[in-house]
Amino acid sequence: MQTDSDAFERLRVIGWPDDAALREAAGQARVARVIGQHRSGYDVAEFAGDLRRVQPPAAWTRPRGDPTLRAVVGDWVILDTDGKNILSLLPRRALLKRAAAGEHYKQQLIAANIDHVLVVSGLDADFNPRRIERYLLIIQASGASPVLVLTKADECDILDDVLEVLENERLADIPVHPVNARDAASVAVLHPYLGVGKSAVLVGSSGAGKSTLTNTLLGIDRMKTKEVRSNDQRGRHTTTYRVLIPLPQGGCLIDTPGMRELKLSGEEDLADGGFEDIETLAANCRFSDCGHSNEPGCAIRAAIEDGTLEEARYLTYCKLRDERDSAAVTLAQRRSEERAIHKTYQKRVKDKYGRH
Questions:
Q1: Which helix (H) or strand (E) holds 200?
Q2: Assuming Cys at both sites, which of 37, 213, 250, 258 could form a disulfide with 206, CB separation 3.0 to 4.6 Å?
């Protein structure tokens, strides 16, 4: 089977973009999109309503291989002629990832080829500006655009105060949409992000309302939902794996499990995550190696003292910067180890089988 014009039109319904370079890269190959990922393989689709289980290339199954070279939900892949095996990945337009939770550093891919990341935060005890900053920092590194969706707006009596807090946090350039996730008319404000050829991913903590939002966009109760705990407003995981869903609006939505821990991968740019003002201030210090404590001519300390920079926000910046830098060092070490392992493997193959 070859990817002809009709096949590309069928792919449009599951998010295929109007991208000449991507179409050229696909050539005449058989193209599908990854809509689910399991330990034993991948679920892919070639059109809306399609689902087939396929096997990955052997290189993807090696435990210490680079995870960014493997497919994730949202990826476009080339299949063999029988449609049973993945041969390769097509170039990505965006890749959302984080450092996986746990003691040992490992990158976790969340979704690929997305246009927007809808950060879902409930207007209850779930609302946390510091966590939102983390989401935005990770999203800006992905190549996708962030959109903040504030659910439970119908239950919030201080919505104007919340919006003012977000503006003071220098999030004014990020689209913010307060919604009632159960009301189709309310969530219709998200439709422009979900048109034909568009893909979005939902992220947020458990209980924020991601599954409820998905059900309302679909118009059916497809995703399981649960009430949050009354004692602490914490949610329970109702989505247990990432899945890509075609929407009536013409685009696609990837729902993800709630994230209790959001670790930086080491590839984030703090200037892109809403801290450009702090980085600009630091560049204006008298000394290039200023520690921003008691040094003369420190622009950071001057801004804190005159009230133009909140010290709490600066401390948050420092925490994220140190975490990012530590993750970057670990990432570099891990990649060096992987290159060494790969060279050793190639040498063993060469010694055993010769040059050919």
A1: strand 199-203
A2: 258
